[in-house]
Amino acid sequence: MSVYDFQLKNIDGENVKLDQFKGKVLLIVNTASKCGFTPQYEGLEKLYEEFKDKGVEVLGFPSNQFAEQEPGSSDEIKNFCQINYGVSFPLFEKIDVRGESAHPLFKYLSESVPFKGFDLNHPIGAKLTEILKTNFPEILEGNGVKWNFTKFLIDKEGNIVDRFEPTTEPSVIAEKIAKLL
């Protein structure tokens, strides 16, 4: 199995088979518009602009599973991302990314690469850990996606190379992307 076996709807409701990205490096990210990590859209767009002509795609998957931080419709999400962050990378329809209702793509990703913890030196890392322990302890169990802006790096052959938690800024991933090209 690989990421190429999955099909999802893009933000405009059109079916997209991920096999159309064969031969490209992918950064798959679950996103939200009302999250402390939302400014990472800017960094993701910078990565996309820097590497898109070299064979890299950033794929954004909005999710409302974490404190209802993505309540908008597809049009609202798309407009928010374009107006506030100039997002031009592909966005998809809102999906669940963890638990029983998680889209099979995110079940596959999170089962393939284990959760390694948040960077507690990140300004939000320790706070997020404490909030989850106190209010949502079930989220910390297992390897499922823990919060918005979890990122999965996929090589040109469709292999999952690495997982980056929300406390990893997109700029940190640039060097790893460059090595895969």
Automatic annotation (TrEMBL):
Q: Read off the InterPro entries from this record.
A: Glutathione_peroxidase, GPX_AS, GPX_CS, Thioredoxin-like_sf, Thioredoxin_domain
UniProt entry keywords in alphabetical sequence: Oxidoreductase, Peroxidase
GO molecular function terms noted in the UniProt entry: peroxidase activity
Taxonomic superkingdom: Bacteria
Thioredoxin domain spans which residues? 1-181
Q: Where do transmembrane segments lie in this chain?
A: none
List the Pfam families hit by this protein, alphabetically.
GSHPx
Task: Family membership, please give it.
Answer: Belongs to the glutathione peroxidase family.
For this protein, the record's PANTHER family field holds: GLUTATHIONE PEROXIDASE (PTHR11592:SF78)
Q: What is this protein called?
A: Glutathione peroxidase
* Species for this entry: Clostridium omnivorum
Q: What is the lineage of its organism?
A: Bacteria, Bacillati, Bacillota, Clostridia, Eubacteriales
Q: Which gene codes for it?
A: bsaA
